Amino acid sequence: MASYVLSGAEALTFSRGRNPVGFGLMEFSRSGICLPKMGAISFTGSNLKAKTVAPRCSASSSRPASQPRFIQHKKEAFWFYRFLSIVYDHVINPGHWTEDMRDDALEPADLYDPRLKVVDVGGGTGFTTLGIIKHIYPKNVTILDQSPHQLEKARQKEALKECTIIEGDAEDLPFPTDSVDRYISAGSIEYWPDPQRGIKEAYRVLKLGGLACVIGPVYPTFWLSRFFADMWMLFPKEEEYIEWFKKAGFKDVKLKRIGPKWYRGVRRHGLIMGCSVTGVKRESGDSPLQLGPKAEDVDKPVNPFAFLMRFILGTIAAAYYVLVPIYMWIKDQIVPKGQPI
Ligand SMILES: C[S@@+](CC[C@H](N)C(=O)[O-])C[C@H]1O[C@@H](n2cnc3c(N)ncnc32)[C@H](O)[C@@H]1O
């Protein structure tokens, strides 16, 4: 048995079984009391004493979200997907974001009624949208992305023909306040220079009682993975997601851990799709959170040399994360089942 304390909006105590890196669903109440779910993970209030050990998951220090990584910028992300869109469905999905994981991650989004109005923000080539339309009428689903190249791939998918597909920025959504039932965003937050602003926007566009589901990476603890993660893009810590949701005004904030099957629950390298975080809009209207002007103005000219260097270094770091799932897959094949890898 191991336990560790997270500090975030509230101090959270994680009490763990034998495997310190498994999956589970965590619930964070407004008072900071965290309730056990699915029997995998239990929490207590911050006033209880707990043994503090070296964190094994995402609970370690990283660069603050306010210091963006090389590709955690709108312009860099635009160019990154200018090229990645060509192979995205063939490279990213098999290694990091399988259909099983997608369905598991969408389960907390509670897509119980096909008539719900859903937006898929940073919807890209429509891989997550294909999971959404298993439950929702496609005509009720809008895919938004800042990359026309990614959206072009979505347009080519027959199953998504009835969806609305638009270009836009996750930090400045072109939807009215209180207008949608579900806000879903998978694997996009890591590119937003100001993730808190994106989550505040999720709150704004949802109807009262509507639910936001943000699926995203988790921070690695292995030194080399941490190095490349911090170069490439934002790998938030679990408690950062919770804090962003709570600050934006959401209630019933929950976090479900996800990951590829062949990782056997290993999270030390971080995961590009490592958790699904949900929250419910508590009051109609805009988020109670007040923010200053946008962190990044895409129309502002950038130094082309600095831009190129950021882009090249960020892409090198991304290449490391193409290798990690292959390495984990080989380990899974070699190490006998039931043993840790
Ligand atoms: C890893 S892909 C995920 C695509 C899709 N959601 C999926 O599940 O396969 C990330 C997407 O986020 C988009 N993106 C990055 N920054 C964005 C922003 N500020 N606003 C909207 N989309 C953004 C990228 O263009 C890219 O298509």
Structure at a glance:
This protein is α/β, with parallel strands linked by helices and 341 residues long. The protein contains nine helices and twelve strands. The structure holds S-adenosylmethionine (SAM).
Descriptive account of the structure:
With 341 residues, the protein is of the alpha/beta class. It has a domain at 74-280: Vaccinia Virus protein VP39 (Rossmann fold), CATH 3.40.50. It is 31% helix and 20% strand. It has helices at 74-84, 88-96, 99-106, 127-132, 148-155, 195-205, 223-232, 238-248, 304-334; strands at residues 2-6, 12-16, 25-28, 34-35, 42-44, 118-121, 141-145, 164-167, 180-186, 206-218, 251-257, 271-280. The strands form two sheets. A nine-stranded mixed sheet has the order 4-3-11-12-10-9-6-7-8, with helices on both faces. Strands 1-2-5 form a three-stranded antiparallel sheet, with no helix packed on it. The longest helix has 31 residues, at 304-334. The protein starts with a strand and ends in a 7-residue tail after the last helix. The model is unreliable at 1-22 and 27-61 (pLDDT under 50). It binds S-adenosylmethionine.
